[in-house]
DNA sequence: GGGTACCTTAAGATTAGCTTACTTTTTCCC
DNA sequence: GGGAAAAAGTAAGCTAATCTTAAGGTACCC
């Protein structure tokens, strides 16, 4: 199972060095030289983890961090040349998974990344169980009593967002924000249609869902405890 | 939710300092001054995470690490005075979740611990206790003697408003403002109905409330001190 | 004991969400 | 580049959970 790691750093030398290290270790890498590129890459295909430099040409890593985490609670490790206490505390305080200062040992970077990935994607590998349905994130498919259904891009994003918050209510606004950029109004009905289609793939009885539950007036919630 | 953290270090000064930091932050602490003590503590009651010094009187932290992880895959963060590359790599290579070198900032220790705990025990939507009722804000439910009741949107907003001001009186006007936009007149009676319904979910005797109290002429007040 | 403030219940109204079919857009393959 | 198939978006009628109204009842305070 190969993880896709997004490297956000504007120094070409460091970019290629890190890419080299990760590739050697069997990871798949994506590159971004600026905040804008990072967001673009992220939207195109969200990575499994992000290595993020604090200083970027078009903004600082901290605010980029906020934008990324808004969408997905994925592992983020800061890489920074600045070893000021204040910076480290800020980065970690925001909720980063690690803060590594340059220069660093290639080996240490790998180990720290591995430590985080191990916790986040522990036993799941790239599959998750949802009652009698099995989600394969890598392939983007759902299996239920033998049948395998492929998820569309929107369905995938929707399920992922709900899965990240599994057990908890996710507001309609948050879901719309995860599926579309720009103004999050006017898509409520479309969202419902996607919810329906997703239910048809993961639920035994789409009209009486056991997992993807409606919480009227508040949003939707992915019920993890075996359904009824 | 309080985590039990085991601190393994033979310097009494550092022991008490770390204990102080963690206690302040709301964690429960356990202490061990040696490998033997650590294993004993572990057997008696496995902690949720371990802070582990590398140098101990009766053995090194690395081998203790192995013994602990053999039994349980819990978070372990090394604390060490030795900042040799080789040590860091060894610690992380074994599968530790972090490796922090002394001296460290108390704040950083807390943040790094928090980062790991967040991943391992994915915090479920923070729960609040209200006497014998338990509110799960993430799920939008209330549990009382085994039974779980889902809150409606209005009930949720109402309870939230009262909880935010728990202990203090909230005026009818303030509650109406929280539940409806626009002019806050004409809804007083409706509010009462919602209060009633909320009481039916959180109170043992809705007509003789212990928590959601009426303050005649002023408003309502959420009584936090476990009523009876 | 009278008045006011709050409670309680049930029935009716409302509206958030469901469902289905249809249209438009995108993707992919020749 | 063009045509087919898949995905995404739109619309409209429907359903039922939830909210609101209303009317009679109860407790508290002077």
For this entry, give a set of tags.
homodimer; about 230 residues; alpha/beta; Rossmann fold; Arc Repressor Mutant, subunit A; 2 domains; 14 strands; DNA-binding
List strands and helices in order, with pairings.
Two copies of one chain form a homodimer.
Chain A: E1 4-8, H1 12-24, E2 28-32, H2 35-44, E3 49-53, E4 55-56, E5 59-60, H3 61-71, E6 76-80, H4 85-94, E7 98-101, H5 106-120, E8 127-130, E9 133-136, E10 141-144, E11 147-150, H6 153-164, E12 169-170, H7 172-179, H8 188-202, E13 212-215, E14 219-222
Chain A binds a DNA duplex (30 and 30 nucleotides) through residues 152-155, 187-190, 192-197, 207, 214, 216-217.
Compressed to H and E, one letter per element, the order of chain A equals: EHEHEEEHEHEHEEEEHEHHEE
Named CATH topology of the largest domain in chain A: Rossmann fold
Biggest interchain interface, per-side counts:
A-B, 29 and 30 residues
Strand order of the largest sheet of chain A: 2-1-3-6-7
The count of strands of chain A amounts to 14
CATH hierarchy: architecture of the largest domain in chain A: 3-Layer(aba) Sandwich
Multimer state:
homodimer
CATH H-tier superfamily of the largest domain in chain A: Response regulator
State the helicity of chain A in percent bands.
Answer: 40-55%
Instruction: Please identify the structural class of chain A as seen in this structure.
Output: alpha/beta
Q: Please give the CATH class of the largest domain in chain A.
A: Alpha Beta
The number of domains of chain A is: 2
């Amino acid at each position: 199972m190969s993880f896709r790691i997004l490297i956000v750093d504007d120094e070409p030398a460091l970019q290629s060095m890190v890419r080299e290290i990760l590739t050697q270790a069997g990871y798949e890498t994506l590159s971004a030289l600026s905040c804008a590129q990072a967001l673009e890459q992220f939207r195109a295909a969200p990575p499994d983890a992000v290595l993020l430099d604090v200083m970027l040409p078009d903004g600082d890593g901290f605010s980029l961090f906020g934008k990324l985490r808004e969408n997905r609670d994925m592992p983020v490790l800061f890489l920074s040349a600045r070893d000021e206490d204040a910076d480290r505390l800020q980065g970690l305080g925001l909720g980063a998974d690690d803060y590594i200062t340059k220069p660093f040992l290639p080996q240490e970077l790998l180990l720290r990344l591995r430590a985080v990935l191990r916790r986040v994607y522990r036993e799941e590998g790239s599959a998750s169980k949802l009652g009698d349905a099995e989600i394969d994130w890598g392939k983007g498919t759902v299996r239920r009593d033998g049948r395998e259904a492929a998820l569309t891009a929107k369905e995938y994003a929707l399920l992922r967002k709900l899965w990240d918050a599994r057990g908890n209510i996710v507001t309609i606004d948050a879901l719309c924000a995860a599926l579309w950029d720009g103004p999050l109004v006017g898509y409520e009905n479309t969202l419902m249609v996607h919810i329906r289609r997703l239910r048809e793939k993961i639920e035994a009885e789409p009209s009486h869902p056991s997992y993807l539950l409606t919480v009227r007036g508040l949003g939707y919630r992915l019920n993890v405890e075996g359904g009824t």
